[in-house]
Every structure is written in C-alpha cells, then in structure tokens.
Design a protein that fits this description.
The mean pLDDT is about 90. The chain has two domains: about 120 residues, Rossmann fold; about 260 residues, no CATH class. A six-stranded mixed beta sheet has the order 8-9-10-11-13-12, sandwiched between helices. A five-stranded parallel beta sheet has the order 2-3-4-1-5, sandwiched between helices. A two-stranded antiparallel ribbon has the order 6-7. With about 400 residues, it is an alpha/beta fold. Helix 5 crosses helix 6. It starts with 10 loop residues before the first helix and ends with a helix. Strand 3, helix 5 and strand 4 form a beta-alpha-beta unit.
Length: about 400
C-alpha cells in the first residue's frame, strides 16, 4: 500500500503558533507523524535531522557556523539529541524578531519541557501530536470495518499508511522504545524488568493506579515503579486520568486511573492478535473505554485546548468514566461496550447529576450501537457519531 499524506487535525494550531511564537515545537510519541507533518506544513524551510551524526557533530564543533546556514530558519528534527541548541536559538530569535522562524520536533516530552523552560520560555509554542484521531482515520480512508479491528490496529500512522501487520509493527515499536528511548531517558539496568512492568501496566488498563501492587508484581520497589510510570507517561505510552477534585459532599477517591494512548499497542502487550480473541476478551469493555478516552483527549490537543478530562469515583463505588470540565459546567460521560441501549447504563450518571445539581450538564452514554436516542434525559450516542461530531 502506498502511503499518502493525511491532513492532520492539529494543522490549525500550528498556524496560530507560527504567527505568535518565533519557535514552534511539535512533540509527541515516536512514529506519530511529527517529521512528516513538520516537513509538509513548513515545506518552505530547510529540514535537518539531528539524529544524523554528521549534523550533530557539526553543531557540537561549531554551533554558530551550523546555524548560520539557516538565516531564514529551519525545521530541526529530534532536538532532544542536541539540548544546547535551544540556548543558541534564544539569542537568535530575540534579535531577529520574526515569528515562526524555527520549528523543532522531539519525542521526549519531559526532556523537551525542561530544555524549553530553561532556554525558550515565552518564545516557543508547543503542539502535541498523537497518533491518528478517528476523524483523521476517516479522512485517510483508514477506518476499520469493525470495532475489534479498529482496536487491534490502533492509530499509529505506519500501521495504516504502509499497510503493515499490526502485530509485527508493534513488536518492533516496543523493542525500539525499550532499546533506544528508555536507555536515554532513565538508567534502567534490567530492560527485561522494564518490559515486564510495561506488560503489567497493560493488564491494569482502566484500573486505578496502585504503585505498591505494580511494584510487587514486577519485583521492584515502589519508588522505581513511580519513576517508570512517569517515564511511560512522559513518553506518551500511557495516559493517566486524574480524579475530579470537587467532592459534592461525597468522599472521593484520589488515585488516578491508568490508560494507554493507543489500543493497538495495548492489544499487542495483552497478546491479542485477532478479532476473535478480542471479541471474547473479558476486558473488552476496558479496551473500548480506553479507545474513547484517548480519542476525547486527542480532540482537545488537536484543537490546542487543555486536556480537561477527569473521572469520578466516590468511596461507596459510584463511578462515572469521564467528566468534561467546561469551566462553569461539568459534562458527565459513561462509556459502554454493549450495542443495546439500556436504562441501567445511566444508573451512576443519574446519581452524579443528583449530587452535582446545576453544575452537571448534558449527561451522555457513548456505546457501540447504531441508534441515537434520549432516555430519561440521558443521550445515548453511537461512538462513531460522537467522535465525528464533537
């Protein structure tokens, strides 16, 4: 299958950043399409890969000479490989004054954040590019025929635009992540133990984070488990969903929940390689929930909005999968993998609305059926409709 460029939802954000900041930073996980997007969107600028040892050596030996080649700016790819670059860019952009002069990409969010906060604070606008969203999959003609196929394939561009076998690609992706990124991020002496940790995290998809249990299952200490979970979050492998902070006179949990940014990677770690195994999988509901939550977050990041998703759980067990914090209102959303709309799906939603009172607005249930309807004040929305129209 020949790859074709899919217009990314975040393009509008890039335009705004290029008009308001001298430096535009595109960050996100490896293979999410950062290089392709930067080269395409900023096609008038020279492209330099800082994974190229010749370019890195040139910069290290003569930084000013290296930058003098690009008087009208450039796209610098994988800038975490040359952290000193940002200090030199600071002086150049302050003197030059033009917006959108340099475009930087990088795969390690926390490393870039530290560098930017030290050298480019107020000078850099940051865009986070995740794997394809549902609308981008539609735009590229990549939407799967079944939900199970969609969950198995995930949303990483190479799986779709190269027509690769998901299992083969994700196996290589995990190996590359462990051997390259993890070693450069944190001092992990036993990569096997880290891979076990990653697999155990996959089994906890949709559950509240229990560092003690994670540590015990992987035979590491809780401090190491916390550091490793932070590495997974900062490198866009896992997505931590925080509990909503207002209690509405109820005792609420304070532990976050664990999800993965991509269900294809998650299915690979859970050793599910075909639709039949997924259809019969006991935690199919958690996988569907993971998919929807990831999509809701992508929508916000692709618009340049804050990721305002939370969950609610009070200590007597009443839980709502997602709360959208809209400022003056809270929109509660339940996610159900069943195809038949049922009144019982709204049981916890209704309790939350009673407790939250006027703060709650437009309760919804996203499910896998086809009908859009309202039952007792709660909207039931097919997932494809919801994700295509929000």
């Amino acid at each position: 299958m020949m790859a074709h460029f899919v217009e990314r939802d975040i393009s509008g954000v890039l335009s705004e950043l290029a008009e308001g900041f001298p430096v535009v930073v595109i960050t996100g996980p490896r293979q999410s399409g950062k290089t392709t997007l930067a080269k395409r969107f900023f096609s008038g600028k020279p492209y330099v890969s800082l994974e190229n040892p010749i370019e890195r050596e040139f910069f290290q030996e003569d930084p000013l000479g290296f930058l003098a080649r690009f008087p009208d700016g450039a796209v610098f790819d994988e800038v975490q490989n040359t952290p000193d670059l940002m200090s030199y860019l600071q002086g150049i952009v302050d003197e030059d004054g033009r917006m959108g002069l340099y475009v930087l990409t990088g795969s390690q969010n926390f490393a870039l954040s530290d560098i930017i906060s030290q050298s480019l604070a107020g000078r850099a606008g940051i865009a986070e590019l995740l794997p394809f969203s549902h609308t981008e999959l539609e735009r590229g003609g990549y939407v799967a025929e079944t939900l199970e196929e969609q969950l198995l394939k995930g949303a990483y561009p190479p799986v779709h635009d190269r027509g690769l076998n998901p299992s083969t690609w994700y196996k290589s992706y995990v190996r590359t992540y462990l051997e390259r990124d993890v070693r450069s991020i944190v001092n992990v002496r036993n990569l096997g133990a880290f891979q076990d940790f990653l697999s155990v995290c996959a089994t906890c998809c949709g559950s509240q984070v229990n560092l003690s249990k994670l540590a015990s299952d992987c035979k590491i200490d809780s401090k190491t488990a916390k550091i490793w979970l932070g590495v997974l979050e900062a490198s866009y492998i896992v997505r931590i969903l925080r509990p909503y902070f207002k209690n509405f006179r109820k005792r609420i949990t304070k532990s976050p929940k664990l999800y993965f940014w991509d269900t294809g990677l998650l299915c690979h770690l859970l050793k599910m390689g075909d639709e039949a195994s997924l259809s019969n999988f006991a935690s199919r509901g958690a996988l569907f929930e993971n998919w929807v939550i990831s999509e809701l977050s992508k929508q916000r990041l692709n618009r340049g909005d804050i990721d305002n998703l939370f969950f609610w759980r009070e200590q007597e067990g009443v839980e709502v999968d997602v709360l959208l914090d809209l400022g003056d209102k809270i929109e509660p959303v339940e996610i159900k993998s069943g195809m038949t709309p049922q009144v019982k799906y709204a049981r916890h939603l209704n309790k939350f609305v009673d407790w939250a009172g006027d703060a709650a607005s437009n309760p919804k249930i996203i499910y896998t059926g086809r009908d859009r309807l309202t039952i007792r004040g709660v909207e039931y929305l097919p997932w494809k409709y919801y994700l295509s129209n929000t």
